[in-house]
Amino acid sequence: MNRNNGCTKISIIGAGSVGATTAYALTLSGLANELVLVDMNKEKAEGEALDLNHGAAFIDPVKIKAGDYCDTKDSDIVIVTAGVAQKPGETRIELVNKNIKIFESIIPEAAKYSPESILLIVSNPVDILSCKAYELSGFPKERVIGSGTVLDSSRLKYEISKRLNTDPRDVQTYIMGEHGDTEFPVWSLTNIQGIKLEEYAKNQNYKFDDKIKSKIHKNVINAAYEVINKKGATNYAIASAVNRIVKAILGNEKSVLPISTLLDGYYGINDIYLSVPTIVGRNGSEKTLKVLLQENEIKELKVSANTLKKVLEDSLPKDTRKIV
What we know:
2 domains; Rossmann fold
């Protein structure tokens, strides 16, 4: 980290809605000294960089430019948001083959110019594409991570907090598994600043029963679909989530975040990227935490893993398919 004379350089591949909003969030947070935007549509990237630079008088100093892959050289973090965007009614998984092809051109270039960087994958389906980025980059697994369910967990905290009339930052919980339709809330670990969820709800005269939990789970799964249907894309909340991950990396915080990371023997799950509570620091994914799950939650995690493995296998050419 900070290989550029003590300065922090972040590159964003993809200057669409998510990439541009992520760049904006990063400029406001002051986390980068240099920010590079790369996009196939060079004029779009140049326009976004120009717009961001026009706010220079209101933010901490940061050098912002649009460029090519060579301009990303020696980045500390490369954030990948490029890919075909999710359309109304389309699942993240349905994007897989289109975006794998895009990644086959992006990742080798990013890795070539920033061989010591951390790759932070945001494009969907993020778990599958994190797997492909790991394969294509040749990087160690801790330096290839996905944004995972950091956003989904925030959505869950919001859903809980608005029912209990409490600060969402006081809600301790996770969404685990796929960033997608098989994700699940870990109700067994959910608490409000150490107070069990049901106990806190009782004190608030709120009946937090299975029907409410099911409704919340459904709302979290459908959250992105609802936003996309109403405004065409999600961008603000995911940019905030990415900013949070970057902050944890650059600050070597050792924060516990449910990023997507390569699992190795996690409840018997191997060789697939999924979101689980992970210590995030300067090296990226520093350690996955094997939290105590109930039997039904372990089953749901394995459903996520098997679903993604099947998608990954089906995405391979017929003559190279194998069990992964």
